[in-house]
Amino acid sequence: MEHRCSVRKPLQFQLLLYKHNLPVQSAVCHNLGLGGMFISAMGYEWRKNEILEVEFVGPENQPSMRLPAVVVHYGKQGAGLMFGSITGEQRRRLRVWLFKRPADDMAGPVPADQKAREVA
Asked: What gap in Å lies between CA 32 and CA 23, rounded to an integer?
């Protein structure tokens, strides 16, 4: 049964995951919505309810944006993240990226053979 509060749009782009303000791993987004996203992050098993931050770069070289997120589920395919409390400006930027830009305007598509790498 689906429990999402927002529709997800299939988009693929590179992310950086932070824990306690330190970068811990790169990942690939597979779909994005106003309420969360699904990512694949090889080499690390996130736990349900684990808190982290997700950073991605916007279109046209806009500054990166870091959003608080909670791991809702994790499996072999990846992790479902739900965004925590985000500001009005962050929500506005997400709306622009999701609804007013074509998918290729994001940080660029990730080739299918490119895997997420662990950050040392």
From this structure: 21
User: 81 and 36 in contact (C-beta within 8 Å)?
Assistant: yes
Map out the domains of the chain as residue ranges: 9-105
Q: Rounded distance, CA 97 to CA 65, Å? A: 12
Q: Could you tell me the maximum CA-CA distance found in the chain, to the nearest angstrom?
A: 38
pLDDT in tens, 19-65: 999 999 999 999 999 999 999 987 777 889 999 999 986 556 666 78
Q: What is the pTM of this model?
A: 0.74
Q: Regarding the domain with residue range 9-105, which homologous superfamily does it belong to in the CATH classification? A: predicted glycosyltransferase like domains (2.40.10.220)
For the residues of 66-80, what is the DSSP string, one character each? EEEEEEEEEETTEEE
